[in-house]
Amino acid sequence: MGGSVSGRRSCVHGLLCVLLIAGAALILAIGNWGSAALAESASASSHDMHVGVASCAGSTCHGRSEPTGKVVRQDELLRWQDPASPTGAHSRAYTVLSGARARDIAARLNIGPATDAPMCLGCHSDPAYAGKGPQFHTSDGVGCEACHGGAQSWLSSHYAVGGTHAANVARGMYPLDRPRARAEKCLDCHFGSDRSGQFVSHRIMAAGHPRVSFELDLFSALQQHHLEDADYVSRKGRTNNVKLWAIGQAVAVNRATTLFADPKLGQEGVFPEITFFDCQTCHRQFVDGPKGKANWVANPGRPIPSGMPAFNDENMIMLSAAARVAAPVLSAKFEADSRDFHAALAKDRASAVKAGKKLASSADQLAYAFARADLGRNATFDMIESIAGPTLAPRFTDYEGSVQAVMAVDTLLNALVRGGYVSDKSAAAIRGSIDRAYKAVGDSNNYRPADFRAALSQAASSIRALK
């Protein structure tokens, strides 16, 4: 399988396919960079009507049965509709609401049919907040415009002779070629947002919804409907997969801490909103009899009392690994802010919110730094070492962070292959070590930290040998 996209699809399909469906001053100057750069096109997109998938489906547009187009494949709709592979997960998002699991979840939540419930349709369909055209159908699921933005103002111009991508973005097309913008868009459903129907609370998970997890580069590969050929590169530039991964981690930390600070989302009655916390710090096996033993494991990145639920820091750990390599000047500050945030959670909500906002700003600064950094061969190898090395490995005490780690190692190996730094043959030769790391997180109920660390270390060692 090597480091190819198809290889990655094969090895993570079982772990992630369900999650794909279930979802979707200097400091001030840097902190506002992401939102300022994004705001104009995001605002334009939010004000344009969504005309519907059928508007994109002509045989001269994206509806061909074969990839025979000169500029784009033109069979994108067929790939989006794939009934079995991850590339078709978005088109199946609405359909799963009719399944037995969704019906059970809806019954437990007492929300009526899931196919009509606003709390489901915000991510299992295109919410089209600005309005729906005559060819729009909720049953299309997560359609083209859910990601590319309402096409009312750019549908005709985006295929016009002489048209440019920049002009389309100016008319409201969402700039998915920008890593920060793509991360913000994907996280709306693959983590949550403050918009209606786009937040998976612990109540929804307790009713049976799958755990929500996200990694920008890997999920982009699983959903990719286009080819990054010479024409694509001339119009939008070549994707740097390492930057995509690193910026995705930074934006995820920013999103989580920002939503946690929102009083409408961060609390549920007298409790904090539990969806922000690490599942396995509470959902562990316990035994009342004499054979019972403590199953809490100390985590050096979380200065909290034993037995206290821990904030889900899977993206924080990955961001720490990336920052150590790509932004060492900012790394120490981010590490300190992360620890301060965990510590504040043991005090009171006001302290936690204050620390969370500071951490969100640090993550935003890192996203900006990654966008400017030269993340090539050496940086990629170093990031793999950073993830699996002795400094961060002790932080893999819980399932969620370990899943992120193995996805990251696989993503970064694939980036080395795409960059021409590692051959497909060499990557294929060490595939077994990557698969063993995936196996170590194959069952959340059978996760063992020491076993995972050993498997991750072996995977990193195998990749190191390719350097």
Describe this structure in words.
This protein is mainly α and 467 residues long. It has two domains: 1-31 and 178-467, no CATH class; 38-174, no CATH class. 52% of the residues lie in helices and 1% in strands. Strand 1 (267-268) and strand 2 (271-272) form a beta hairpin. It is globular and about 70 Å long.
What's a quick, concise take on this entry?
This protein is mainly alpha-helical and 467 residues long. The protein has helices at 5-22, 26-31, 33-46, 76-80, 100-109, 118-124, 144-148, 165-170, 179-190, 202-206, 216-223, 230-236, 241-261, 314-326, 328-345, 349-372, 377-388, 399-418, 424-429, 431-439, 449-464, and strands at 267-268, 271-272. A hairpin with a 2-residue loop joins strand 1 and strand 2 (271-272).
Helix and strand content put the structural class at mainly alpha
The termini sit apart by 19 Å
**Which regions have little confidence, pLDDT < 50, spanning 5+ residues?**
1-7, 9-44
| Largest β-sheet summary | 2 strands, antiparallel
What share of the residues does DSSP label as strand, in percent?
A: under 5%
Number of helices: 21
Query: How many structural domains?
Result: 2
The SSE order reads HHHHHHHHHHHHHEEHHHHHHHH
What is the radius of gyration?
22 Å
> What would the average pLDDT be, to the nearest integer?
88
Number of strands: 2
What oligomeric state do the depicted chains represent? single chain
Q: Which sequence of strands runs across the widest sheet? A: 1-2
Shape: globular
Helix content: 40-55%
